[in-house]
Amino acid sequence: MIEIDGITKRYDDTTVVDNVTMTIQPRTVTVIVGTSGSGKTTLLRMINRLVEPTSGTIRLDGEDNRSVPGFELRRRIGYAIQGHGLFPHRTVAENIATVPVLLGWDASRIDAKVAELLALFQLDPETFANRLPHELSGGQQQRVGVARALAAEPNVLLMDEPFGALDPIIRAKAQEDLLAIQRLLGTTIILVTHDMEEAFHLADRIAVMDKGKLVQYGPPSELVERPATGFVETLIGAAERPFRMLSIGTAGAAVEAGEAAGASIAATTTQRDALAELLWSGRNAAPVSDADGRPMGRITLDALVQRAARRR
Predict the structure, then answer these.
(1) Residue 242 burial (CB < 10 Å; 0-12/13-18/19+)?
(2) pLDDT tens, 118-131?
């Protein structure tokens, strides 16, 4: 658990983060959003003390983050940034091993962890371990950057616009990789982005920052149904609002009795993607299957359109 209690950061007469209080539950994904200059990156960096707060307290599992030296704290917390930040003259394996080496792990343990993470990120160790960063694609570099942040097995991973430099197709794949790995490892992730699509796709809870203040903090559905301020409503987007709810509901939650022809849709598919599939395939309904491929019923175009319309 991460408890942020009355955190403020001032630079001379400018308040960048203004008395923010929030609690982040373990093994969840929290996304911090806001416009440029809203204080979201400064708030993130106060968790690992790359930025020291002016006042307030941050506790990790009940421990004040100022109770340990900053360098030691940062070795416990993974940190991934936009553009990956890899050391250009170190191999992929050496980059991933950075923090384990600093922690004094023995060579066999480091080698095993590097191989495990490369395999986890679908990068063959024999092919990629000895490559230099410039020999990788942008998406591969970003995966190595996240692997490096996870190498010391941190409970917490901080991510600052990690996918901002990727093209849309690679970005979507990187987001799916992150969700799969978070579910596998149970890591608590706090991610900063300005992209609301990314926030709604990844987040268990979204924190909205505006001019240094935390103006709303809750699950995506709460932001859509009950935006706390006009700023939050604008950030969500009036035109997109009906589809935001579809993007956080699953096809399994919209199943109704009956049969339908054609390829089935997985129950875990978002309702928004299910709607897109029906429109692209020209169908009014599609079968829905569970994780084992068993039929659950069907999902219909009319029902999805009605769900979207109710959110206007």
Answers:
(1) middle
(2) 988 888 999 999 99
